[in-house]
Structure formats: C-alpha cells, structure tokens
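step=predict obj=Urease-associated protein n=102
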Amino acid sequence: MLELRANCECCDKDLPAESQEAMICSYECTFCCSCVEEILENVCPNCGGGFSPRPIRPKLERRDGVSLVTQPASNRRVHTSYTLEELQSFAQTIKHIPANSR
C-alpha cells in the first residue's frame, strides 16, 4: 500500500492525500509537480527513475477497510538529503534517457 507522504521532499510543500500535485517514483519518493518539472526534470534524485501522478485514495469507505478512514495517509515528512545544486546536476546527467529506459 502506498505511504502517501505528506510533503514534497524538495521544497516541503504540503501534499495532502487528495493533492493532484503529488508525483511519485516507483519507490514512492514524493515531489510536487513544480519540482519534478522545473528542478528534477522528471528524474528521481534517489533512484534515477521517472515520476507518475500519485493516485488519490478514496475518502469514503465504499468497500470494507478500503479508504483514508481505515488506511490514512502518512503524516511523516520526508526531506531530500541533497542540495538543490546536487539535484539539478544529477538530473542533467540522465534526463536525456527516457524514463522507461533508465
């Protein structure tokens, strides 16, 4: 099950469970659309993969045990350990490779 992290790991913008601005890689690294496009250039700084929009977990329980009520989003905030310059430098090295070929 996705952790649904609470914030962008780069700029610390709040990304609540219903946010349509949250982007994730296959390891659930979480960044906002702006950082993915403007800083990371669709390159995850942790794994080198690409990003996809994070799915929205249903607020209402339409099936037993399946909703934000029974499986809430995380409130743990995660921050990258890399500087802005390191993020941009890493993205520059592999952004030309399509995400599905990295």
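step=describe
The chain has one domain: 22-96.
step=end
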